[in-house]
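pasting for the record
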Amino acid sequence: MPLQIWVGIGGTLVALAFVANGIRHIRRGEGHLANAGRLHIAMATLFIPVLWLIVIFQVMSA
């Protein structure tokens, strides 16, 4: 597999860790921590599709 695929897999795992951390923050309570958790989830859901679009573009152009 090309290096770009491994970078995509690694980036996805990091993003999923952010989602898990965000869920953990939301369950802890309300306020600043819950808002931070929601932001973690939002950023990861935006990051993953963009990451894979870039990976696919890089693999196709190589």
